[in-house]
Task: structure prediction
Amino acid sequence: MTLLAALVLATTTARVQAVPETTQEAQVEPQAQVEPQAQVEPQAEVEPQTEPSPSTAELARSLFPGAAAGAGAGAPGTEGQASVSDLYPQLFPGGPPQTTPETVEPDVEPMAAGSGVPFGPFRVRAGIDARYVDADTYIEGPDNLTRARYLEVMPRVAAETPLSDGRLSLEYRPSFRAFSSIDEVNSSSHRARAGIELPVGPSVTARVQDSFVSGVLDTREVDPGGEYFFTLGRFHRNTVDGGLSILLNPRLSLELAGAASALRFQEGASFFDYDSRLASAGLGYELTPSLKTTVVYSYDTVPTPAERPQAAYRAHNAQLTLTGDILPLVNGRLTVGYRDQKSPNAGPGGTRYRGFTMGGSITKQITHESAVTLFVNRSTPVSAFEDNAFYVFTAVQGTGRFSLPLELQLQGGLGYQWNDYRTVAAGAGVPREDRIFGYHVGLRRAVLRQLFLSAVYRHEERRSNLERFDTDSDGFYVQLEWNVFGDAP
Result:
């Protein structure tokens, strides 16, 4: 992070000397998991290549914490679509999953030409969202349902500037919560990211990115599968990833990537500190100008955590990925693979996983303002439950957005998740099994050109063969979204 910050500062200083400054200020957009993908103005048409409305993503993330992150289909003034699970964690500390941790790939698209406003050497997009939440939470334990009511304010800012023939991008998205009787709910969350993409010679493109997350309720950053949803503590997570794309001929490329992540808790929680490492190599082939396939081998590991040695593992993965326009008006990213994981310190039955994995999202554009997205995910997150090193989670989730009369937009989704453990649970005689079902539905409407009002209801049920993990929860929120500078990221 120090090297990247220094490079960002040097680049910014050099650009400011060459480019006249403006006096416009930047603010930040509050929606969950903001990905700097360009969106369209409320009256603009959504091209078939774009993904579901950010508001669909916002609703999904706020309602169900799971599923692989998808690319967003732009809808008037909305954010890029994100995984169903990604949205839920901001409201409740539990639910379905998000992205598979076994892959490393760039997740930030360049700003569209003319997007945002000039600010020194940067183009900036900014906004602020505010919402009132009335929802269930299990912060104190799975057998202690508590109603939480609070106000959440979420500024957001994303900035981008040319860097030689490449680009430098920055992003910051905090969330501030208040007026709840629960201390953990009144906590804040912070997300920051800095990334560089730069050509190195005529046939090599390099990229590097540093992402930082700090929070309490953002449980999917800690555990993508949703095992961790009670007895929460503040954590910091920092992830550095990078890669090289080397063009071998006009359609064939060599893809190299690596990542390192560190999770640390600042206070007691029902999860644990751990690090992860990943390296991958593969070949990419351009099937058509808008569709690419990649075959990748990757190796990832979790070094033995001091407080939980059972979680240590080493894994080999073979994966095939399709990215782009799969069919007319159908686009997305889909990965299928085979994983061989060894966890030598786990209990009997849980020392190895050999089987298929998957992850991704596919969007079908129905009309300019209507689309449906399917999310799929299967991976093996680390586990804090008894002698398990990991558990296998499989999730299928869908979201949709549809235009209605009176300039209203209907947004909704549902998902189902399987969490299966390998070691025999104490006192049960069989391994633990959790099943999670959830849905959300809401309405959204433009109030002014860059101001939107939405209301969402969500419901979730967790059923386990261990009765103490059975939960039922629901929630409601009303949100104002204001895109201060340009479209939302």
